Amino acid sequence: MAGMTGAVPYYGGRFTPAQAYAAAHPQQKPPPPSPPSEVHAPALSRADQVAALQHLLDTGVLTQEEFEELRARVEQ
Fold first, then answer.
1. 28: how many CB neighbours lie within 10 A of its CB?
2. How many CA atoms lie within 13 A of 75 on its CB side?
3. 2, 9 contact by CB (below 8 A)
4. Are the CB atoms for 62 and 70 separated by under 8 Å?
5. What is the 3-state secondary structure (H, E, C) of the chain?
6. How many angstroms separate the Cα of 41 from the Cα of each of 38, 44?
7. Tens digit of pLDDT for each residue in 3-21?
8. What's phi and psi for 51, nearest 5 deg?
9. pTM (whole model) above 0.85
């Protein structure tokens, strides 16, 4: 009769060959995952930022008021 004691099957006090090998060769735990590296967007020059805002204004994503507000922030 087979019973379970923890994570190791128990067969009347005898290990199977696979269990004996596993007991003699414990698996190493994988190293903990490294923390994710932060990915930063490349820094854009002020002229590039204003050009991007102008594109958003031209395509209708921004209103003129929003464009002026954001451009003032960029130029500070």
1. 6
2. 9
3. yes
4. yes
5. CCEEECCEEEECCECCHHHHHHHHCCCCCCCCCCCCCCCCCCCCCHHHHHHHHHHHHHCCCCCHHHHHHHHHHHCC
6. 10, 9
7. 555 566 566 667 778 888 8
8. -65, -40
9. no
